[in-house]
Design a protein that fits this description.
CATH superfamily of the largest domain in chain A: FAD/NAD(P)-binding domain
Distance between the termini of chain A: 67 Å
Shape of chain A: globular
Structural class of chain A: alpha/beta
Family (chains A, B): Belongs to the class-III pyridine nucleotide-disulfide oxidoreductase family.
Protein name (chains A, B): FAD-dependent oxidoreductase
Domain FAD/NAD(P)-binding (chains A, B): 4-304
Keywords (chains A, B): FAD, Flavoprotein, Oxidoreductase, Redox-active center
Oligomer: homodimer
Strand content of chain A: 25-35%
Radius of gyration of chain A: 23 Å
CATH architecture of the largest domain in chain A: 3-Layer(bba) Sandwich
CATH topology of the largest domain in chain A: FAD/NAD(P)-binding domain
CATH class of the largest domain in chain A: Alpha Beta
Pfam families (chains A, B): Pyr_redox_2 (PF07992), Pyr_redox_dim (PF02852)
Largest sheet of chain A: 5 strands, parallel
Number of strands of chain A: 25
Largest interface: A-B, 68 and 70 residues
Number of domains of chain A: 3
Helix content of chain A: 25-40%
Chain lengths: 458, 458
């Protein structure tokens, strides 16, 4: 008799697991049922801001594989608009509510894949039921927001709350749609995902786009009339708004998991082992934005919700469910984004994170260019390295530049992954030709400067 | 009394050494004399094709630091148009001919820095004294070529002999100047610095530029009338030419070194130790295109003339001359270039090189895109990995793409440098956002595919 895999959550992690498991085990050997609360499977949540902004025209372009593809090609019984409400690990069954037809279904499982993703943090002041207030976590969220922006009366003024990646990307998207935009950030500056000195360059770029950036500004409430939002209250007064986008971060969506007794870690994410099994559980896997990962530099658990991790983790889970062997080696906090023409990349620890982790470190910042200075189109590029004071081990790196900059973080990410010291890095054989780099690559200049800084400090 | 450093060769390696030595030792402690045969110091030879093509307007933009700067700021006694003709290691002196004024000078040295670079291979059929025939090794070569191209009668037809990096870049430069161009390559295809399957994409790009590419075509002679070249003879007939550019490669310029008894390796380059000292010699350093390096993957000596190595090696030599400690860790064969919009990157071994080194290997090639497929401007990108069959260790990688492609080789170069296996690489935390990569980075897709290939082969 076939075993049964039940997948909770039909996005990247869940469906990557389902398709990998299917690759190794046919339908006669493994039955797969996937419950998805929304209307879509396997889409690029990270692409939503670009679709909202009109950079990407077609919503369906964001969908990697449709439910029908999973049903036909992968023989996965995908059940959309089904919300799992209970997991019984003793009876090994789940209960799901049919959000369309109503009613409840129960399904037994041999193997469980928990991949419910993350949920936007809802601040205490937020009336998410008010019309005109949106998160942008799911494609359904995105659809609702786009409809609102196209509706009448046509929204003119947007307030984006929160200056993280999503907030910044959404602020730009709103500008691209012709709205006037205020970005409200509680902290000292937007993009706290890089150090303040690098983040200042982002703030500049946002200013350049005409975005009204309000920092150290706490939102205290929403103004709602006739069920529609018309403003945001802050400590410094009201900001008028026809649409409010919440980008205040997400938390692992683990309520159901916690109720069922799955192990929850200090970050709020599910604890998993190297093979993406929930720690201590029998044939229960978890992956994606609902789990926590190990940071390879600090060794500490972290919650870094990103599509690339979700895909990798889902694949690892699926390979193991399929009888193979694969492990997820942890993360190092690499991320890239852009604001208008400004590109930002980071990997490893920020200064504040290195501090918390207990490192003594030096930092170096170098200004260089992405191409040979004399080559047309050469643009400034700033590289920052954070380096353990004694060993010279790279702890973190950040790059800000105008073009061909962000993805250069990858070379630093691989160096960091391999625990390289800046001494070793200064000798790296990186690609050189005038259209692509100065003869001393900015990464090498930064490494050299860090070597000097450390030797002076000895 | 001050010691004296004599530098032979005033380009990247020699002058990097001079300035690093100066940083650590003042003029009272170390006198520095630099002999340079040509008219320039410390310039970007790699930039010459772009200056010839008019992409870079100003010759002086290629000069990193002028002789006067070295004299004034670094207190280096730079003697231009002085060709060293003899090194006497017993007497510890050099003899140099003054190419302008005539006559000879003798200078004693305590420390010698040999940095004479490389010389273009001159095929037996070449009359380099014929007008209209040029190498492009030095800035003086470039100046002469530019003058010829601007002269009367205005050259219309160019033949570039040799399809390596320089040949391909020069062919494009000639097209940019409005000449009709024939590229003659003895081998099966131009750009033999990548595997044939990747090189085919380069040939396509050259065709697209309107360059007449003749492969398996051996040049047998030049046609010269009244001292001017007017054609190139090949086994398949004559090709008319008003200008002929030789890009048939270079050899380490070691005649002088060999005569003086410096150790010459199997590649023809000077053998040096980790600190860039000529092996077995007392206080004699060598760096740049005249030395051989260790390839970190094969452990074999290689001669890879590149400005980036010359700069690094010169700096290492200079630090050691200055009383510091620095080592050059070897090379892994990383290189990048572009042909029109086509970008090419490579690192490590080609298939043929892996074969010669004795590896059993598998190769994988993946077609992907530089950005998320749905993001505007997404362009195709091909990634090839060469992987040791048993261990899964990365041996080589090549990338060909349309934009934002070549420098991605750096992440692979760092992986290779650290002897990563494709299993490890499949888990790498690389930067992801739709404007910069698909959710599965092409590098990760390639690594995954290689993992599959290896496991199937076991």
């Amino acid at each position: 008799m076939a075993e049964r895999l039940v997948v909770i959550g039909g996005d990247a992690a869940g469906m990557a697991a389902a398709s990998q498991a299917r690759r190794r085990r046919g339908p006669d050997d493994l039955e797969i049922i996937a419950f998805e609360r929304g209307n879509f499977t396997s889409y690029s949540a990270c692409g939503i801001p670009y679709w909202i902004g009109g950079v990407v025209d077609d919503r369906d372009a964001l969908i990697a594989r449709s439910p029908q593809t999973f049903r036909d090609d992968h023989r996965v019984d995908v059940r959309l608009r089904h919300q799992v409400t209970e997991i019984d690990l003793d009876k090994r069954e789940v209960v799901a509510r049919d959000l369309t037809g109503g009613g409840e279904v129960r399904e037994r499982f041999d193997i469980l894949m928990y991949a419910t993703g993350a949920t936007p943090r809802i601040p205490p002041w937020a009336h998410t039921e008010a019309l005109g207030v949106f998160g942008v976590q799911t494609l359904d969220d995105g659809s609702a927001l786009r409809q609102w922006l196209d509706g009448e009366p046509r929204p003119q003024r947007a307030v984006v709350v929160g200056g993280g990646y999503i907030g910044v990307e959404m602020a730009e998207a709103m500008i691209q749609r012709g709205l006037s935009v205020t970005l409200v950030e509680r902290g000292d500056q937007p993009m706290s995902t890089v150090d303040p000195d690098m983040g200042a360059l982002v703030t500049e770029a946002l200013d350049g786009l005409g975005i009204d950036v309000r920092t150290r500004c706490a939102v205290t409430g929403l103004r709602v009339r006739d069920g529609r939002v018309y403003g945001v209250d802050t400590a410094e007064g009201e900001i008028p708004a026809d649409v409010v986008v919440l980008g205040v971060g997400v938390r692992p969506n683990t309520d159901l998991a916690a109720a069922a007794g799955l192990p929850i870690g200090v970050t709020g994410g599910i604890r998993v082992d190297l093979r993406m099994r929930a720690v201590g559980m029998d044939r229960v896997y978890a992956a994606g934005d609902c789990v926590e990962s190990v940071h390879r530099i600090t060794g500490q658990p972290v919650h870094i919700p990103l599509g690339t991790h979700a895909n990798k983790q889902g694949r690892v889970a699926g390979l193991n469910i399929g009888g193979g062997y694969a492990t997820f080696p942890g993360v190092i906090g690499t991320a890239v984004t852009k604001v208008c023409e400004l590109e930002v990349g980071r990997t490893g620890l920020l200064e504040a994170e290195a501090e918390i982790a207990g490192y003594q470190f030096v930092t170096v910042v170098v200004e260089s260019t992405n191409r040979a200075g004399y080559y047309p189109g050469a643009k400034p590029m700033t590289v920052k390295l954070i380096v353990e004071r004694r060993s010279g081990q790279l702890l973190g790196a950040q790059i800000v530049g105008r073009s061909e900059a962000a993805k250069r973080i990858d070379a630093l990410a691989v160096a960091l992954w391999n625990y390289m010291t800046v001494d070793e890095m200064a000798g790296l054989d990186l690609g050189y030709a005038p259209p692509f780099a100065p003869v001393w690559d900015p990464v090498l200049i930064a490494a050299r400067k860090a070597v000097d800084a450390i030797h002076d400090g000895r």
